[in-house]
Structures are given as structure tokens and as C-alpha cells.
Amino acid sequence: MLKARIKFRKFGVMKFIGHLDVMRYFQKAMRRAEIPIAFTSGYSPHMVMSFAQPLGIGITSDAEYFDIELTGNISPDDAVSQLNSVMVEGIEVVNFVRIADDKKSSGMTIVAAAGYQVTLPETFHTSEVTKKLPESWAEQAESFMDQEQIVVWKKTKRSEKEVDIKPMIYELKVSEDSIYLLLATGSEQNLKPDLVMEAFGTYMGLDMAEIPVHYHRLEVYARKDSQLVPLDALEI
Q1: How far is CA 128 from the centre of its chain?
Q2: Contact 32, 46 (CB under 8 A)
Q3: Whole-angstrom Cα distance, residue 28 to residue 32?
Q4: For each of the chain's 236 residues, which pLDDT tens digit applies?
């Protein structure tokens, strides 16, 4: 069976569309774009489609991924062109690569990290117009990361518990107009950027709920030879 990995951007008003609706949207888009996608067998067949790491509502992204199985060959250029011809504003397919026919290489199982850009919009009503970060934040970020532990209350589906999130923060860099976060992501460890910013704000004596913050996912990574590699760089 042929397998492919599709990378797409999600921006604009589509950031308010939830994961399940995005899945349904792409199911319809596959039909319209005439992509030779495989279906499961049985009484209720559905498209063989697996998303790597669902995106939270309100977050934009340059790197969303899902894997599909194909029943026939299609060139990557044709696939991207045919899909984008049926896309709505706010979603753009940027890559289509062949991947190994191996469950261990599926997007959901190999995700290890994700990179985010955090900006401060002028208001809660738009993320387009942003302002410079306070100069003190860069120094505060260094001392924040110098702590032995960064303990927060983390909610799970069943409970809420104290967790040391420092080992899950691989990188935190503050520039003049944004913060770059590289965080553990996936089935083994999963840290959301808003939890990091909430902890950082608390450390600085700020209530982040009162500050407009926008999160943008830059890339999703897998581990290969002890290095982090974008998911679409693992093509066969």
C-alpha cells in the first residue's frame, strides 16, 4: 500500500475551526480533488487518514500534518495542485511526500516536538497587529529557565496534578517582537505553549489572562539519529 504525508497551513479565520471539522473538511476535499485515497473495508468504510498532532482552536500554523493511504500513484506536484484548487481561504497545502509503509513511522507515533512563535497582539480582537515585547522579558526568560524546576498544575482528562514542565521546554528565546518555544509534543510528553506562557507570566508577576497572546505553530518534528527533523523531511 502506498502512503503519503500531507503538510498544510492553517491561518486566518480557519484558526477558529476545530480538529474534527478540519478532518471532515479534508475528507470532502479529497473527493473533490480526486486524490486516489484508500478506504477501510467493512460495512461502514471511511478514508484511511491519520492526523499527526491536533491543533488547538485559535492557534495558526505553518505545519499541520496528516498521513493517508493511496490506491494509485499521483505525483506530489499534481496532488498539491489538485488539493489547493479546492481549498478554502485559510487552508493551504504546502507539501505531499511519500512515506514508508510502516506503522512505526506514522505521524501520530513519531511526533517528538513542535516549535511555536508567540506574539502579543495590540488587542484581543485581532492577531494581525502586534506590539514589541517588554525589554525586561529577555532577562526574565533566562532566569525563568535557570530554575531547577518549573512546577505547574497540569490538567488531564481525569484529574489535575503538579508537573515539572522544565524538561519538556527544549528552548525558550525572547526577541524584540516574539518568543520562540520548542516544546515536547506527542503521545509520550505533550506540553502546550499556553501553559508555558502562563507559568512564565506567573514568574514575572503577570496575569496572562489579561494580556492578548497569539500562538503560531512553526513546525512539528520527529527524532532521527538524536536530532529533531520536520515530519515532511522523512520521505522515502
Answers
A1: 19
A2: no
A3: 6
A4: 789 999 999 999 999 999 999 999 999 999 999 999 999 988 888 999 999 888 889 999 999 999 999 999 999 999 999 999 999 999 999 999 998 876 556 667 889 999 999 999 988 887 888 899 999 999 999 999 999 999 998 777 777 889 999 999 999 999 999 999 999 998 788 999 999 999 999 999 999 999 999 999 999 999 988 899 999 998 66
Residue 106: which residues within 8 A CB-CB, separation 6 or more?
Answer: 50, 67
Q: What cell numbers appear for 109 in the block?
A: 507515533
Q: How many CB atoms lie within 10 A of CB 140?
A: 17
Cell numbers that stand for 46 in this block = 471511511
DSSP symbols for 77-138:
HHHHHHHHTTPPTTEEEEEEEEE-S-GGGSHHHHEEEEEEEEEEEEETTEEEEEEPPPTHHH
CB 174 within 8 A of CB 182: no
Determine the Cα–Cα distance for residues 55 and 189; give it in Å rounded to an integer. 16
Q: Which three cell numbers stand for residue 96?
A: 505531499
Q: Which amino acid is at 131?
A: K
